[in-house]
Amino acid sequence: MSLLVVENPGQLTTVQDLGREGFGPLGVSPSGAADPVALRLGNLMVGNEAGAAALEMTIVGGSYTFPTGAGIALAGADFSPTMNGRTLEMWIPHALNPGATVQLGATRAGARCYLCIAGGIQVDSFLGSASTHLLSGLGGFGGRELHKGDVLQIGLPTKALWRKKISPGVLHAVKPGKVLRVTDGPQAEWFSEETRQTFLQSSFRVSEESNRTGLRLEGPALKPLNEVEMISEGVPLGAIQITPSGQAIILFVEQQTTGGYPKIANVIGADLYSVGQLRPRDEIRFERVSMQEARTLWIAQQRLLNSGKQLFA
Question: What is the structure's pLDDT at 86?
Answer without folding.
Answer: 93
